[in-house]
């Protein structure tokens, strides 16, 4: 049994643990009863997308009834949304490293308090692609920073500590195999660049501030491509670092909404973007079904 | 007339500008008609708090009717929520620097496209206090980083650029004067530390990961206090930096939910926390009323 590895000796001394941003606490909620059977956790930025995912996976696993409404477990707050069906937990994390980091601290403690074991966490997200047809799905080999290094800089008490952003190789391969089996859209394994900013940090020309030109932008994106980067998003590095430290198997599966070598604006129609965003859900849904022997 | 200063020569060449995370665009929405009369923009992390604020300010300005429901202008997305009444716009920004940065890029472009002038932007938020009674309100003098320097590091195309985090001194003084006039809660002017993380980055002992002890934590917080820091939050530095560059008058007004010298967990009752969170709203609501000659 692979339990959560909690890297914090202080927690054992606390009588009660309030997970403030989930509006849950060990003094008010029975975590083992509520969450003890969780095996798969899927996280993504948008609360409505994570609600759509729980509805989808419930039907796929034969655990839902059509039109069933899944209650938001974090209804006491609007910071994050959380849904559960059977062994699957679906949690939103907002946008950016700090936002997903708060969520992961509380999620990892939740799984620990619930005595969960053999957990797999997968981020299903959106991203900008580099050199890929829009709608392609990228399974992350390594999450790299804005200088293409596979590392995450965590500031602790004012000092910077470097953490590894390794992800589970075997899990990435299994997900790639699943994509081949469902054979519905282009999927690649590649590096994912994780930035602190959507506009200047990703070389966009269409933000409120832009002090470089198109040539410099394209040079940067091509350097990223040459180093193995296939997509850019804003959460994978701290996600990989924290899952690593907690001994949890983790993967990042993001669809690319555009090809950044061809533009900056996300201008596809609403319907096309909705269909793109379902692709990581379909891939991870199939993976979960297969893992449970239901394929 | 003080118009928005747009630091991006590329935008003039674009036929259309899609503000993706607002689900608004210049090709589909008439920005001057929708937003041209805006003079005050209030931003805060939580969408429901920003909705509560628009209801409150509408009543204060005599522009609302009891029980009136204000539509979410960004209803086409769940990334941010936006509400408007008269000259006041209320926008949520999620948690952390990257999340507020995306919102501010699109907000500044929105105000520019709408040809707004003489804008004041105020962040009304929550924070952890240092050496203050919980419920105290801090008006930010300077936003400082985790080493107590008044600067923001922006990564652009992989290189780090330092930006100033100055806020409007006169506006901070006017807000302090408003607090004296309403005389309902303790308010101070002080420095605000802006971190990339809520747990390790703020010296908490109750995250999923903690590799330091209580002494080291308290030493760090006391150093922060000695340098003039009175509260800690996660958005003020990029907020100050971007407002600075865009020539917009800006202030940060945050309530402190706890005194970090006495603990890490936010354990006050729901009702107490709700009342605390109304304090920046009351202060800024009074300031807006006074600015409009309605006090």
Automatic annotation (TrEMBL), chains A, B:
Keywords: Glycosyltransferase, Transferase. It comes from the Eukaryota. Residues 39-288 form the Nucleoside phosphorylase domain. Substrate binds at residues 202, 204. InterPro entries: Nucleoside_phosphorylase_CS, Nucleoside_phosphorylase_d, Nucleoside_phosphorylase_sf, Uridine_phosphorylase_euk. It is an enzyme of class 2 (transferase). Its EC number is 2.4.2.3. Belongs to the PNP/UDP phosphorylase family. This is Uridine phosphorylase. It comes from Strix occidentalis caurina.
């Amino acid at each position: 049994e692979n339990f959560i590895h909690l890297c914090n000796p202080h927690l054992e001394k606390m009588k009660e643990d309030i997970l403030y941003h989930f509006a849950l606490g060990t003094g008010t909620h029975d975590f083992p009863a509520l969450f003890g059977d969780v095996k798969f956790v899927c996280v993504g930025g948008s609360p409505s997308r994570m609600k759509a995912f729980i509805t989808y996976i419930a039907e796929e696993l034969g655990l839902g009834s059509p039109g069933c409404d899944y209650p938001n477990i974090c209804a006491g707050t609007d910071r994050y949304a959380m849904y559960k069906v059977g062994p699957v937990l679906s949690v939103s994390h907002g946008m950016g490293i700090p936002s997903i980091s708060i969520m992961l601290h509380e999620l990892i403690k939740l799984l620990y308090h619930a005595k969960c074991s053999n957990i797999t966490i997968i981020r299903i997200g959106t991203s900008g692609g580099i050199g890929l047809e829009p709608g392609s799905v990228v399974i992350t080999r390594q999450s790299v920073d804005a200088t293409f290094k596979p590392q995450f800089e965590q500031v602790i008490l004012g000092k910077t500590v470097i953490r590894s952003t390794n992800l589970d190789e075997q899990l990435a391969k299994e997900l790639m195999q699943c994509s081949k089996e469902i054979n519905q859209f282009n999927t690649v394994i590649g590096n994912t660049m994780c930035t602190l900013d959507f506009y200047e940090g990703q070389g966009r020309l269409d933000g409120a501030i832009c002090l470089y030109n198109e040539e410099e932008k394209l040079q940067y994106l091509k350097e990223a491509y040459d180093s193995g980067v296939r997509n850019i998003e804003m959460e994978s590095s701290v996600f990989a670092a924290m899952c690593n430290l907690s001994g949890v198997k983790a993967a990042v599966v993001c669809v690319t909404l555009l090809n950044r070598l061809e533009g900056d604006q996300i201008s596809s129609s609403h319907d096309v973007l909705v269909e793109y965003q379902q692709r990581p859900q379909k891939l991870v849904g199939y993976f979960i079904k297969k893992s449970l022997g239901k394929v």
